[in-house]
TrEMBL record:
Subcellular location: Cytoplasm, Cytosol; Nucleus
Superkingdom as given in the UniProt entry: Eukaryota
InterPro entries to which the protein is assigned, alphabetical: AHP1-5/YPD1, HPT_dom_sf
Gene Ontology molecular function: any one: protein histidine kinase binding
Protein name listed in UniProt: Histidine-containing phosphotransfer protein
Cellular compartments per GO CC: cytosol; nucleus
Cited function: Functions as a two-component phosphorelay mediators between cytokinin sensor histidine kinases and response regulators (B-type ARRs). Plays an important role in propagating cytokinin signal transduction.
Source organism: Rubroshorea leprosula
The keyword NADP appears for this protein: no
GO BP: cytokinin-activated signaling pathway; phosphorelay signal transduction system
Keywords: Cytokinin signaling pathway, Two-component regulatory system
Domain notes: Histidine-containing phosphotransfer domain (HPt) contains an active histidine that mediates the phosphotransfer.
Keyword Glycoprotein appears in the UniProt entry: no
Length: 150
């Protein structure tokens, strides 16, 4: 069992490394995983689903806001702030940069700029989401091995 667990741990570390090399995340995600607190030895199992759920919800709200004839740029800016907070929780730096572009477009009151920046943000989320989901799945497998290990 230990060798399977070690292999899964290496796979998680490799996935985090890939995300870092792609520039999708900074070193925060790896640091969170390394925390290994006794009260929560698998912090990514809580963080990843929460991040994905919250980010998806904000993106959906942004999409609705951008679909209106008269954009409420202030509301879009608030949503950008929410998303930036979420991205900082895991170090999702490419999503954070996309949020900055969207915020800039809201400052310029450019609907086309907002729509373009939103598409970039959405694509960054989709790209990161599958990598995070796979990382969480690997962590679940490791937890399962630990709970089934005598």
């Amino acid at each position: 069992m230990a060798s399977r667990k070690e292999a899964l741990n290496l796979e998680v570390l490799e996935m985090i490394s890939i995300m870092e090399k792609k520039g999708a995340v900074d070193d925060r995600l790896g640091k969170i995983r390394d925390m290994n607190e006794t009260s929560n030895p698998f912090p990514l199992l809580e963080l990843i689903p929460t991040f994905n759920k919250d980010a998806y919800s904000i993106l959906r709200e942004m999409s609705v806001a951008l679909g209106k004839t008269d954009l409420d740029y202030g509301h879009l800016e608030e949503l950008c702030s929410k998303m930036e907070g979420k991205t900082s929780s895991i170090g999702a730096c490419r999503m954070a940069r996309a949020c900055s572009r969207l915020r800039q477009a809201t400052d310029e009151k450019s609907k086309d700029g907002c729509l373009n920046a939103f598409e970039i943000l959405k694509n960054e989320y989709l790209s990161l989401n599958w990598m995070l989901e796979w990382t969480a799945e690997l962590e679940r497998r490791i937890l399962s091995l630990e709970t089934n290990d005598p």
